[in-house]
Amino acid sequence: xxxxxxxxxxxxxxxxxxxxxxxxxxxxxxxxxxxxxxxxxxxxxxxxxxxxxxxxxxxxxxxxxxxxxxxxxxxxxxxxxxxxxxxxxxxxxxxxxxxxxxxxxxxxxxxxxxxxxxxxxxxxxxxxxxxxxxxxxxxxxxxxxxxxxxxxxxxxxxxxxxxxxxxxxxxxxxxxxxxxxxxxxxxxxxxxxxxxxxxxxxxxxxxxxxxxxxxxxxxxxxxxxxxxxxxxxxxxxxxxxxxxxxxxxxxxxxxxxxxxxxxxxxxxxxxxxxxxxxxxxxxxxxxxxxxxxxxxxxxxxxxxxxxxxxxxxxxxxxxxxxxxxxxxxxxxxxxxxxxxxxxxxxxxxxxxxxxxxxxxxxxxxxxxxxxxxxxxxxxxxxxxxxxxxxxxxxxxxxxxxxxxxxxxxxxxxxxxxxxxxxxxxxxxxxxxxxxxxxxxxxxxxxxxxxxxxxxxxxxxxxxxxxxxxxxxxxxxxxxxxxxxxxxxxxxxxxxxxxxxxxxxxxxxxxxxxxxxxxxxxxxxxxxxxxxxxxxxxxxxxxxxxxxxxxxxxxxxxxxxxxxxxxxxxxxxxxxxxxxxxxxxxxxxxxxxxxxxxxxxxxxxxxxxxxxxxxxxxxxxxxxxxxxxxxxxxxxxxxxxxxxxxxxxxxxxxxxxxxxxxxxxxxxxxxxxxxxxxxxxxxxxxxxxxxxxxxxxxxxxxxxxxxxxxxxxxxxxxxxxxxxxxxxxxxxxxxxxxxxxxxxxxxxxxx
Length: 750
Hints:
Elements: H1 10-26, H2 39-51, H3 54-67, H4 73-79, H5 85-98, H6 103-110, H7 115-128, H8 133-140, H9 146-159, H10 165-168, H11 177-190, H12 193-201, H13 208-221, H14 226-232, H15 240-251, H16 254-265, H17 274-283, H18 290-297, H19 306-318, H20 325-334, H21 339-348, H22 354-361, H23 369-379, H24 385-396, H25 402-417, H26 424-430, H27 441-454, H28 460-467, H29 472-485, H30 491-497, H31 503-516, H32 521-526, H33 533-545, H34 551-559, H35 563-576, H36 582-588, H37 594-607, H38 613-619, H39 625-638, H40 644-649, H41 656-669, H42 675-698, H43 716-739
Helix pairs in contact: 1-4, 1-6, 2-3, 3-5, 4-5, 5-7, 6-7, 7-8, 7-9, 8-9, 9-11, 11-13, 12-13, 12-14, 14-15, 15-16, 16-17, 17-19, 19-20, 19-21, 20-21, 21-23, 22-23, 23-25, 24-25, 25-27, 26-27, 27-29, 28-29, 29-30, 29-31, 30-31, 31-33, 33-35, 34-35, 35-37, 36-37, 37-39, 38-39, 39-41, ...
């Protein structure tokens, strides 16, 4: 007998359709439905289900579902036996959408001989959401066909039926992967805490096909499964506690952190897992906060697990928690070469660590002596000072040995932190060690920092030379040291370093000059007229960071000195935005130099003082275009509407930069009086640009499409004229768009 692709015969399919129709009629009372205006359309769709393509049949199913009513049930029930899976599943969804009216058809289909119909019916019952479906679906879990079992299991998960969990749990180890996956999804969606314990028990299964689905189900259950997973941490089965910790981390959230914190206190958990728990607590403490983490780590300080104790102590040391000290000392005695523990002891700065560290340093076989020396210096353990200096002197004789350089740098740092003045001469020599060699930069940097901490002004020449070293690391360290010395002789080399090409060196020099404060002020003021604009800007940056700000000195500089110095003073006063400088800045508007007047206008903008409006309006008539443009922009930024008439007059200014600034200011001020003048300006600039481009085309310098003709270059003046017209026109159009929607003029295409 001929069969379709899924093995069904026409006789079986016809028998199912008759059976489904009988179930529907049985649910319709006397079988006489009321008149329906959609009868013809429904009949056409029913015919399409029998003759159409897969796409057409699926569309027909959807349309029947949309029509609804009891008359749609029969054809949709018949579609559950369609040869195409997509049609069957769409029919199940459509029946489920019909609600209780579809119950008879779906339950009848669940008993059909056709496997595909049973699968689709199980899917539909899950979507129906009817509580009566759970019992029928539990029966279907025992169906001989794995695809039907999988569909029934998924449906039970959709219903969230906790009573089904006992039937689903054994299926985590089912031989068919479809059934296993369905059981995982269903148990995860049901999320029953009672079943979670049984799922956790499956984590100990020897077969991965049972273990892995159990893990997936617990992940899906989420936070509700955490109490059961926490119990798995007590397991003695190999690998189960590790899997449980992985699951806790995967689920995450505040509850997961609390579960791990509780595990750290639980005496039943094997101490071998403590180090992993500590690591997870540190990694996942974000929501809990540092204080809660410190509290959770305290039990680890008494753990039999050495690594757990050391890891917890290291974290607590970074937080400055002295409770970590006993555990850190125990960890250090157990392993005096552990760099992490040594660093943690240094961070705590507890004098109790000094003696054990010094004893370990005296051991010539200890390979961590450099780190120990640095820690002794960080702690400030005075008894180690003489030992450190003696060792530095001894090793300095072997400084050409590359293996010695790292520990020499550590010893230099330690000597500086311990303020050992007897090491100054050697340290000054070290600031010049291999000055032209990258390999010596770490020693030079460490020696420079040490000299700064010791505070001996004899080191200034050596540090000044190092500040001009050429290598960023020692240069920055020398600048830091010069700032620590608090001596006026430190200022000149720092001012030179302020010109360095390296941002790090310039930053270190600026910080040092700020730290020197009043000592650096006179030389800084003298350099405010430097020819290098970048250097002047750096000096302004230093002056504006000083506390208290040198307002009086800057105001005085604004009245005297070179134009560059007066301009820098105006920049500095504007950056400070301090009260009491308004009169000085207004007076600077009368300066004989245009750059100073423009800087004063900018500074008045930064002060945002409304009293500056009147002098700024007067500045609109300044002889210098730069000042007029700056004044217009400032008035626009300040929102000074009283300046509108004066700014409107600037739209006819001969300088393009002034017209551009005036148009932008009018756009910011939002005054309707500016609309027509701006339109006129935009059109005038556009016409002027068109005329200029046409002249250049006639001269053969541009093609008809506006491209430059090779070999016929334009002059700089012609290029500036094109750019000027375009800038002014763009500013006018932008202002119009702010004032009037669609207010921009039509621009030339060229």
